[in-house]
Amino acid sequence: MDAMKHAAATAKEKIQNVSAKAEEKMDKGKASATAKTDKVIAHDEAGKQEAKAREHQKEAEAERIKHEKIQSNVAEKHETKADLENRKAAADSAYRAPQTQI
């Protein structure tokens, strides 16, 4: 039973990580498309440089958010596993030391 719960926690983390990576790719794609549009609209070299700088900034932000989500997922998995271990230890303790009341 515990093995299944551990496997479920690990699977949930992996799914959330894939989701975070996909979201990052979407955000980077949006940044790239926006930058290309801004470069076409820009009339001078300074406008093109600003568009490129905004693109890099948005890509860096997407990368940072992805890493935060992955770290959060890892922490959540460890909390879940620790909670399962604590519950198991409490159940074992209660089983080994039953209260004898008649």
3D shape: rod-shaped
End-to-end distance, in Å?
33 Å
Radius of gyration: 24 Å
Mean pLDDT: 89
Instruction: Tally the structural domains.
Output: 1
Strand tally is 0
Structural class: mainly alpha
Uncertain spans:
none
Number of helices: 2
**How would a textbook summarize the main sheet?**
none
Order of helix and strand elements from N to C terminus: HH
Biased composition (Basic and acidic residues): 11-90
Region (Disordered): 1-102
Family: Belongs to the LEA type 1 family.
Structure description:
The protein is an all-alpha fold and 102 residues long. It has one domain (22-95). The protein has helices spanning 2-41, 45-96. The chain is rod-shaped and about 80 Å long. Belongs to the LEA type 1 family. Residues 11-90 have a biased composition (Basic and acidic residues).
Provide the fold topology.
Layout: H1 2-41, H2 45-96
Helix pairs in contact: 1-2
What are the key terms here?
single chain, 102 residues, mainly alpha, 2 helices, 90% helix
